[in-house]
Backbone:
């Protein structure tokens, strides 16, 4: 092998790896995904039929903890999620004003159908309607950011 190829192969490998680096999404990506999410209006007028009692909110927290905490953290605000801001688009803080202004029906739709092409998976067929509505209740009553600790899956001590 010539000296030239000994230099070019590692250089090509480094360039390939540099091209695979995850970067923060640009403004266009962020605006586009925010617009798509805000336009979720089909079934968006549905009202949550589950009464907001402490027991129902706790049930929503438990279901959220089983299905949603890997991306959103135990508190719904990305606490302890190492990749939340590096996704494209970033994993939203569910306590943020942008998310909290969605109607209950819009939140249910997002949970049911997911958001393509983001990393938000659909839960239809996995979670029942009552479970999803309870998650929506929990989203409306999120605890203080960081108060539940970090998910154990990321080395935290879940409470």
Residues:
């Amino acid at each position: 092998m010539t000296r030239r190829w000994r230099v070019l192969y590692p250089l090509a490998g480094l360039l390939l790896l540099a091209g695979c680096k995850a970067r923060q999404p640009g403004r266009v990506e962020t605006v586009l995904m925010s617009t798509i999410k805000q336009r979720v209006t089909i079934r968006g007028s549905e009202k949550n039929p589950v009464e907001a009692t402490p027991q129902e909110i706790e049930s929503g927290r438990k279901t959220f903890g089983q299905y949603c905490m890997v991306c959103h953290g135990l508190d719904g605000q990305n606490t302890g999620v190492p990749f939340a801001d590096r996704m494209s688009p970033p994993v939203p803080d569910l306590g943020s004003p942008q998310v909290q202004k969605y109607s209950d029906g819009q939140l249910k739709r997002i949970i049911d159908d997911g958001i393509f092409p983001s990393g938000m998976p659909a839960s239809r067929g996995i979670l029942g309607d009552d479970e999803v509505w309870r998650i929506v209740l929990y989203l409306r009553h999120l605890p203080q950011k960081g108060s539940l600790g970090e998910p154990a899956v990321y080395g935290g001590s879940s409470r």
About this structure: The chain has a mean pLDDT of 83.
